[in-house]
Amino acid sequence: MTTNGGFEPVFCTVVPPHVLDRLARNDDPALSGPARRTLVRDSELRGRRRVTTEFALASAPPVKAPSDQPLRTVHDAGHGTALPGTKVRGEGDDPGRDATVNRAYSGLGATFELFLRVYGRHSIDGDGLPLDATVHYDEDYNNAFWNGEQMVFGDGDGEIFLDFTIPIDVIGHELTHGVTQYTANLTYYGQPGALNESMSDVFGSLIKQYTLGQTAAEADWLIGAGLLAPGVSGKALRSMKEPGSAYDDDVLGKDPQPATMDDYVRTGRDNGGVHINSGIPNHAFYLAATALGGHAWERAGQIWFDVLTGGELPDRALFTDFAVLTVKAARERFGDAGDEFRAVAKAWEQVGVRIP
Fold first, then answer.
1. Which of 55, 82, 174, 319 keeps 20 to 30 A from 262, CA to CA?
2. Is the Cβ–Cβ distance between 293 and 165 less than 8 Å?
3. pLDDT tier, 63 (very low <50, low <70, confident <90, very high otherwise)
4. pTM of the model
């Protein structure tokens, strides 16, 4: 059992297990092989994360004093699995020839920038944590993950998934798992797990929007746009605007995310459907942000950040618990008569999450 604000890192990947499960059953070994190897690798890593957490075998990463500048290090695994790999770029180093390394470095910086400049948070732990990443992990590895200490990116198999450093929101998504780890520490199962995943999608999208200078109306609200290979019938991994519409492909199947509680999926797989039911709070954020207009990170994002880091969100929070706190945060920051209070309350009503 965890406590609010405690420290229990979990192994979080951006590609849901149900997507890899389907690929692993494909008759074409070019598709099933990489998916099966990725599932095996993810299972091993998940088990290792659980053991090191339970028995305190993982050493705490070094912490720097809060700074207005990130401290980034990118390593190259050379298609092996030993972490962190060979250092290939450090903070302040000029870009090299490897576009994957350069994208990882930039994505780490963009994430640091949003949290510091918009929300006053110094790195993901709030205390200047160095940002480490490893690229070119394993062979045809179809995922990216946060392992409680660092980011890791696969190159994809080239058939279904491309390089996982391509979408900046994937980088932001995974690093936000670190922010959640150091704050609300939401249990990674069921509704609290779906909220955990949703927090990463929300801030991953905001990082992309902030970097591009987009308003809520201009944003595509897609998670992982550019990640799917050209032959795949889809546009991204998930859509916050229209959950369930990100892909509809003969190989991948159809995006299973619901937009409202009417279609809530009850399952024991994927930690109780954390990557599936996250579509509901994702859609609530989209509705609130687009109703308010302007830059989504300024008002809707601030409300979500206040709840995530405010100390009142229990680690086993249900959607209703989170909704109540967002309405409270909107009222406290912007007032009862503000558009923010009304937009947030209406958004939860639209997705079927009842606020007592």
1. 174
2. no
3. low
4. 0.92
pLDDT in tens, 71-92: 999 999 999 999 999 999 999 9
Q: Which of 149, 159, 174, 340 is catalytic?
A: 174
Catalytic-residue membership of 275: yes
Q: Which one is catalytic: 122, 136, 275, 295?
A: 275
Q: What is the CA radius of gyration of the chain?
A: 19
Q: What is the 3-state secondary structure (H, E, C) of the chain?
A: CCCCCCCCCCCEECCCHHHHHHHHCCCCHHHHHHHHHHHHHHHHHHHHHHHHHHCCCCCCCCCCCCCCCCCEEEEECCCCCCCCCEEEEECCCCCCCCHHHHHHHHHHHHHHHHHHHHHCCCCCCCCCCCEEEEECCCCCCCCEEECCCCEEECCCCCCCECCCCCCHHHHHHHHHHHHHHHCCCCCCCHHHHHHHHHHHHHHHHHHHHHHHCCCCCCCCCEECCCCECCCCCECCCEECCCCCCCEEECCCEECCCCCCHHHCCCCCCHHHHCCCCCHHHHHHHHHHHHHHCCCCCCCHHHHHHHHHHCCCCCCCCCHHHHHHHHHHHHHHHHCCCCHHHHHHHHHHHHCCCCCC
Neighbours of 234 (CB within 10 A): 22
Query: CA triplet 145, 150, 182: central angle to 5 degrees?
Result: 95
Please indicate whether residue 79 is annotated as part of the active site. no
